[in-house]
Design a protein that fits this description.
The protein is about 85% helix and about 0% strand. It is mainly alpha-helical.
């Protein structure tokens, strides 16, 4: 009878240990999945930043090109003759 009691206590303790281990593993699993998804998210953000930097550089080059063309146009306008119409023929 005493041996039965000891076995029951031992089995109960083993079940508690198994339950504790299972709950710890269950708690750890979302953390690993979360860190993997965070890694994916960071990589995606880094790619987006690289793309935005590239687009920004292209836009800056385009703006500089347009500014240089615009700066060249007023210089040509200085040499044009303005015609005024006074209403007489």
């Amino acid at each position: 009878m005493k041996e039965e009691r000891i076995m029951l206590v031992t089995n109960y303790c083993s079940i508690r240990k198994i339950a504790l281990i299972a709950s710890v593993l269950a708690a750890i699993q979302p953390l690993t999945a979360r860190s993997a998804s965070e890694t994916d998210r960071l990589e995606k953000l880094e790619r987006a930043v690289e793309l935005l930097e590239k687009q920004n550089a292209e836009l800056k080059a385009e703006v500089n090109s347009l500014k240089s063309k615009q700066a060249a146009s007023p210089a040509d306008a200085k040499f044009k003759t303005k015609m005024m119409y006074d209403g007489k023929t």
